[in-house]
Write a structure and sequence with these properties.
- GO terms for molecular function: electron transfer activity; heme binding; metal ion binding.
- Keywords: Heme, Iron, Metal-binding, Signal.
- Residues 1-22 form the signal peptide.
- The protein has six helices and no strands.
- It has a single domain (2-123), classed as Cytochrome Bc1 Complex, Chain D, domain 2, CATH 1.10.760.
- The chain has helices spanning 2-34, 36-39, 63-71, 75-81, 88-95, 107-123.
- Helices cover 62% and strands 0% of the residues.
- It is mainly alpha-helical.
- It binds heme C.
Length: 125
């Protein structure tokens, strides 16, 4: 009986780990495909279009942005959902001939992207 319990719970934790890995990959893919052209893989504004917009793309690994993220944990998701900088991003992409196809964001996508970016930012120095 004990062995069965261990087998069951062991199986459960593996099953729980699989989506976590997949989520991380989804977040990474979304960031790489839709954000990295400006923000850069390191989120330090190292992408090829980082200086093509006005204002330029900010480094999101600074102490100032970490504080912003801790004061307002929704800042990453709201930057996608609320588009606070209006047409700045589509215009910059268009002017530089970069096409990023539209994406129907799901709640899971937003969670995964947020989790991925917060992870990279918190590991960055
Ligand atoms: C065309 C270049 C470009 C792309 C693509 C881009 N950004 Fe940005 N991002 C910017 C610029 C420029 C700013 C600064 C805007 C400002 O100061 O008004 C910014 C600001 C931000 C901020 C800081 C917002 C704040 O209020 O402090 C976050 C978070 C962010 N972007 C997330 C993203 C995410 C997530 C994606 C991908 C889904 C993305 N960005 C795609 C250029 C870009």
């Amino acid at each position: 009986m004990k062995a069965l319990f261990i087998a069951l719970t062991g199986g459960l934790s593996l099953a729980q780990m699989a989506p976590a890995l997949a989520d991380n990959l989804n977040g990474k893919n979304l960031f790489t495909q839709r954000c990295a052209v400006c923000h850069g893989a390191d989120i330090k504004a190292s992408g090829p279009l980082a200086h093509k917009s006005s204002p330029p793309t900010p480094d999101l690994t600074t102490a100032a942005f970490r504080k912003r993220l801790s004061d307002y944990p929704g800042v990453i998701v709201s930057s996608v959902v609320l588009r606070p900088n209006g047409s700045l991003i589509p215009r910059t992409l268009r002017e530089n001939g970069v096409k990023i196809p539209p994406h129907a964001w799901s709640i899971d996508d937003l969670r995964d992207l947020n989790q991925y970016m917060v992870g990279v930012i918190s590991k960055s120095r």
